[in-house]
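2024-03-11 09:14:02 INFO worker-7 job=invfold-0412 stage=load source=structure_tokens
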């Protein structure tokens, strides 16, 4: 019969491709990891890794085993957590993938409130691009993803709205627009912009909303392109140009140090969602968080 502990050792070794690193993650010795892998290979009668000096690689048999082992480990954890939850206390781990801005400014206070309700749940977050966060859920490496509305949502991902974030145009305090407060759409062509990179949630929302009022984003005088909204907010504060950033960042990071500008007719919002895999069995902790959102977020 298969040993789930040995499968977990294999899974960790396959993810790290390094027996020493796998041993560190598992709090085992390196010889013990090697022995478990050797026992598993004897069980299947096939090599799972190719050893070449200090480097290792998965064999074709190892590649075939990897998704099956991951599924068995997830189901094993699910069984353990479900049985423990019968006592009335939610236990287990919750892995959340999240895009940059929601992950830094929206998720922490939400998780703090959730932890007060379920102190036995251990939460780990992985901040990355929106696409990567959703892919981690598809691959089974995360239970949930916190993202803005994606143009293409993987078929098996179910989304639930969590919040609405207003994207704001901000300018340096000494910028001519700061005194006016309200500008016309055509004025946007007359100053330097600091923008997010193509494909980011903020950039997509900005381009779509500008197009709706007759403004072509590629005609803006783009001085800088930066990879995160915090950098844009600080660059605006330093007087380098104007930029569109999440309202969460304006409130938390640069309040009173930049001037919010209203563009007549322009309203940019991003819907923030939490997503889960609709066909993969949910853990008790995952289900508790999914239900908690309905209680925590005003409808």
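2024-03-11 09:14:09 INFO worker-7 stage=emit residues=299
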């Amino acid at each position: 019969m298969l040993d789930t502990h040995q499968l977990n050792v294999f899974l960790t070794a396959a993810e790290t491709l390094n027996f020493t690193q796998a041993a560190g993650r598992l709090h085992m010795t390196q010889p013990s990891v090697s022995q478990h892998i050797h026992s598993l290979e004897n069980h299947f009668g096939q090599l799972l890794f190719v050893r070449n000096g200090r480097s290792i690689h998965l064999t074709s048999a190892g590649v075939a085993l990897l998704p099956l082992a991951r599924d068995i480990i997830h189901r094993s954890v699910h069984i353990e957590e479900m049985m423990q939850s019968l006592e009335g206390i939610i236990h287990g781990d919750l892995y959340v993938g999240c895009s940059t801005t929601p992950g830094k400014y929206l998720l922490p206070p939400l998780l703090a409130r959730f932890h007060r309700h379920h102190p036995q749940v251990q939460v780990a977050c992985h901040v990355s691009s929106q696409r990567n966060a959703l892919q981690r859920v598809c691959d089974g490496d995360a239970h949930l993803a916190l993202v803005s509305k994606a143009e293409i949502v993987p078929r098996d991902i179910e989304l639930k709205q969590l919040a609405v974030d207003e994207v704001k145009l901000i300018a340096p305090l000494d910028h001519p627009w700061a005194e006016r407060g309200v500008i016309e759409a055509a004025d946007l062509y007359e100053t330097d912009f600091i923008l997010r990179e193509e494909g980011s949630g903020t950039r997509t929302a900005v381009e779509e909303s500008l197009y709706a009022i007759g403004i072509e984003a590629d005609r803006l005088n783009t001085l800088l392109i930066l990879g995160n909204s915090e950098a844009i907010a600080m660059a605006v504060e330093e007087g380098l140009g104007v930029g569109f950033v999440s309202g969460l960042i304006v409130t938390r990071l640069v309040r009173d140090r930049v001037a919010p500008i209203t563009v007549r007719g322009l309203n940019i919002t991003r819907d923030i969602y939490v997503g889960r895999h609709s066909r993969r069995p949910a853990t008790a902790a995952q289900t508790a968080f999914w239900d908690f959102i309905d209680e925590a977020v005003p409808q």
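2024-03-11 09:14:09 INFO worker-7 stage=report msg="The mean pLDDT is 87."
2024-03-11 09:14:10 INFO worker-7 job finished
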